[in-house]
Amino acid sequence: MKQNKKARYIANVTAGALLVPESKKIADLMLKEVSKEEWKRKIEEENILQRLSLSSSKRIATFIKSRLQLMTNELWAMIRDGDNILATQANFVAAVKQSKLLGDYLDSIVRTQFKKMEDTLPLSLWDEYIAMCEKADPYMEKFPPSSAEKVRGNMHKILIEVGYLSNPYQRKLQKVEFLPEIIEYLKKNNEQYVLRCISI
To answer: Are 23 and 87 in contact (CB under 8 A)?
Structure first.
């Protein structure tokens, strides 16, 4: 699907969810500032991301790199060297910055559910949210049904990975306590939008 650069909402999470193990490997390459040749060798020849096809490896590597480039090497180190919780939360805040579709979903729909003391996140709210986004963003291209379903699935998978949702079926809402390192990083780097979105 062609993406309009002026659009606030684009389907930029269709390549996958948080991909924490893969992100650790990409963060390592970025921290080491490997050359283009070394990057190609690691991704295409050594297949460090362990994908079945070359095109998949290249797509996932590019996707993760574009996400991590929005943050600094301090966050990359948290992803590479942190335990599963720290690495997951670090990936998550980068994902929120990368995708306004994810961030605003948290900031509006998920936040409202918490305020209303609701304990689940119905699938119907996603459809309402997409309709709201289309109305608010004149540049947003309508998602084909297959893309809309895939984006929703990845969005909810991300929320499950970080802990906001219990599982893909019951979708029970849960509060998430972010580690002090994450909160300190976001404050230090003036990531106000991300802070607001995760503070629900």
So the answer is: yes
- E-strand ranges in 17-120 read none
Rounded Cα distance, 61 and 180, in Å: 28
- pLDDT per position as a tens digit, 131-189: 899 888 888 888 777 777 888 889 999 999 999 999 888 999 999 999 999 999 999 99
| 183, 194 contact by CB (below 8 A) | no
Sign of CA dihedral 41, 42, 46, 49: negative
Task: Indicate the CATH number for domain 20-198.
Answer: 1.10.3540.10
Task: Tell me the C-alpha distance between 107 and 53, whole Å.
Answer: 36
Q: At what angle do helices 54-68 and 20-31 cross, to 10 degrees?
A: 70
Nearest-angstrom CA–CA distance, 134 and 136: 6
- pLDDT, one tens digit per residue, over 53-64 is 999 999 999 999
Task: Say how far apart CA 100 and CA 134 lie, in whole Å.
Answer: 13
